Amino acid sequence: MYKPATIKDIALALKLSPSTVSRALRDGYEISVETKRIVMEYAQKVNYKSNPIALSLKNRRTYSIGIVVPKLANSFFSQAIAGIESIAYEKGYHTIITQTHDSSERERTNVNHLAQRSVDGLLISMSAGTSDYSFLKTLHEDGLPIVFFDRVIDEIDTFKVTSDNFKGAYNATESLIKKGRKKIALLSNAPQLSITNERLSGYMKALADYHVHFRPEYIRNCSKGGNDYEEVEDAVKELLALPDKPDAIFISSDRISISCVRALKHLNFDPKEIAIAGFSNSDVVDLLHPSLSYVRQKAFEMGQIAVEMLLKLIESKYPVTEFETRVLDTELHLVDPK
Fold first, then answer.
1. What three-state secondary structure class fits 325?
2. Which contiguous run of DSSP H or E holds residue 251?
3. Which of 22, 53, 107, 117 is deepest in the core (most CB within 10 A)?
4. Distance separating alpha carbons of residues 233 and 262, to the nearest angstrom
5. What's the pLDDT score for residue 289?
6. Where is the HTH lacI-type domain (predicted)?
């Protein structure tokens, strides 16, 4: 019967101590690069697999990471999770994924449940419904490593990774202006989210740079983040009912973008009358009708960076006191109406 290789087997074969092999496999800072290379190559050769249960008993760690996102069905978050898992599993960690549906109550419940299950760290993208972050502050102060991605907050000093939301919104709005549109509405997410304010700023800066008049009545916030189709359709109806209705709409959220296109189609609007640009990571966005110029975020890469940041916090031998916020570029894809 096949017996998988153990740390002791690797140590015996390479004439190293089991503790040295163990530290090398965990990328310990005290082990030389050359020794790590030799150990890793041999471990791969004999198909060594770590035992997370044994490791957790020895090190009082669970080798699991909690992930909290607003919506798994959102293309952006599913891509980010794929990025997280591509690194986590390689490093011997398992993931526990929860979704909040943009509910603050569910977010609090999910976070507390993950903490009670003794996850080694938490990756979170904030819910649109949350404005009180005290429950996260308490866990962070108690020593739980937390990293924020996409939807970040200023209230907790830790690693964060997000997109260049300002530039993405600026570029999308600019593309509408260059099509000759001067009455550009904004469909946006909940106002307390970091991405909402950054994208609003990019939208307003583009209007100002091109001397396009800013109209407050053209702004609509969808507090449920596109999860409630009727909320989005009502916002679109309100915009189209204005005495001086917009000739373009910039949509600053992935879920809202899809719902807006659906609403416009349902309302039988003429695509030539209203141009659309929005944020979207959907794989089928190019097939939508009416067509949509869109800003794509580097979701997979964001997930990878976020989990690498979290593992740095989890595995550091010393307290981490200096943190960075990584800001990733976005890509604008222009689609002409058909």
1. strand
2. strand 248-251
3. 107
4. 8
5. 66
6. 5-59
8-18 pLDDT, tens digit each: 889 899 998 88
**Residue 1: inside a domain:** no
Is residue 336 in a domain?
no
Place of tokens 């909320």: 231
Give the whole-angstrom CA distance, residue 265 versus residue 259.
10
What's the pLDDT tens digit per position in 23-71? 888 777 678 889 989 998 998 888 887 655 455 444 567 899 999 999 9
Give the whole-angstrom CA distance, residue 337 versus residue 334. 10
- pLDDT at residue 261, as a whole number: 82
Domain extent, residue 219, equals 165-297
From the DSSP assignment, how many helices (H) and strands (E) are in the chain?
Answer: 12, 12
User: Who contacts 200 (Cβ-Cβ below 8 Å, separation ≥6)?
Assistant: 169, 186, 188, 219, 252
Residue 338 lies in a domain: no
Rounded Cα distance between 334 and 338, Å, is 12
